[in-house]
Amino acid sequence: MDPVPSPTPSxxxxxxxxxxxxxxxxxxxxxxxxxxxxxxxxxRQIVGLFAEVERAASSGLSLFTPVVxxxxxxxxxxxxxxxxxxxxxxxxxxxxxxxxLAAAERAASTPVLTEALHNGDLSAAQLNVVTRTxxxxxxxxxxxxxxxxxxxxxxxxxxxxxxxxxGARQRENERAxxxxxxxxxxxxxxxxxxxxxxxxxxxxxxEWAKVAPLLEARAKARWKAAxxxxxxxxxxxxxxxxxxxxxxxxxxxxxxxxxxxxxxxxPRVETxxxxxxxxxxxxxxxxxxxxxxxxxxxxxxxxxxxLLGEGGLRYLVKEGFDIKTVTKATRDIxxxxxxxxxxxxxxCCAEPCGKRHGLERDHVHDHAEDGPSxxxxxxxxxxxxxxxxxxxxxxxxxEPGNWKWVAPENPKSAGAISRARKLATAKAKxxxxxxxxxxxxxxxxxxxxxxxxx
Length: 454
Fold this sequence. Notes:
Elements: H1 9-12, H2 15-32, H3 40-71, H4 82-90, H5 94-108, H6 111-118, H7 124-134, H8 140-149, H9 154-169, H10 174-183, E1 186-191, E2 197-202, H11 205-209, H12 212-226, H13 234-248, E3 271-275, H14 277-282, E4 291-293, E5 297-298, H15 301-306, E6 313-317, H16 335-344, E7 360-363, E8 378-381, H17 383-391, E9 395-399, E10 402-406, H18 414-443
Parallel strand pairs: 3-6
Antiparallel strand pairs: 1-2, 3-4, 4-5, 7-8, 9-10
Helix pairs in contact: 3-5, 3-6, 4-5, 5-7, 7-8, 7-9, 8-9, 12-13, 17-18
């Protein structure tokens, strides 16, 4: 949105009337809307405009709520607290409103954030990320605002914030921070009145890194084995994998393939730790340097180096060996190339996606069309964008660090892409079954006593 100048004292008296007019106009638009008569493209533009309205409204709310809190005027409507008042207005929980109020309070004391709110640049979620990080890192707003204003996804903004917080933690006593986390570690569960069990846990990143890769690998295997007809989410399969691993851990269960309770054999799972050589030598990260546990997120250098000596860990120090010199003639990807790909493509390469978990490898130029399995011809995409590329005609162009997500001349709808994916899955399944049947037939010995054809 274009920058909006701050209202002058003489103009402030008219803000309430102006806003009432805008609200009535919006309510009229919504009341008279006929979504069924709009085309998909028209509806997409309308949603985009409503998103701008929502962002502007969120910025306005954040600008003025600190005044309500400071003056205590929320009690004039019979509310006992500011969070209760805001929750009733926005239709959110009191806890959610409390977080929103805290973000607005922090923004009010930071001039650069106040300016961003006047410009309508930030959503409530973006403001929350920036202000929470600013509480730990003094120059966080200056680093994060350009990302938000440049169209970065919330995930990309959150990732950048996590790196800043990890860097700041290195300037405090890392052992003291780890001790605080350790002191508050917990695993809680309870039965819900309506049925079922709900739980949550809290632990140190290093401790979680010892178990997370195996859990994620088992969950992914279950999810893929279930096939496209399965309606369960990946999170549901993650829970199933967790329960399965717990049941198998004592060797006394009966869930193993042979009834012994032993975990079925599978590929060796490794935890990948990514770290810049300069940060490793210095002991802290600076600027855009990386120190992350793959699948978990940024950690301090001290935390990462604590994992040295643990089994099932693989360190990738970003300096030295030129991984681009390794290639293979098959679709399979060499492990060193795979590690370099993970280090290079930290998020989905289809901008502005920003997803970082569950990414899949894909060839820029398809292997079926002689595209090589080398680093410069590989990207990581989230499952949704991988599907768009494979079945929807979208393309990745450019080069590493400057990929462009290019639309086909006539982009397909989600329904058409889904049908194409299901058809391809059915064909692949039929081909696999045919090959398996042919293999069985080839191994059946011929009956030597059967009569020969003349």
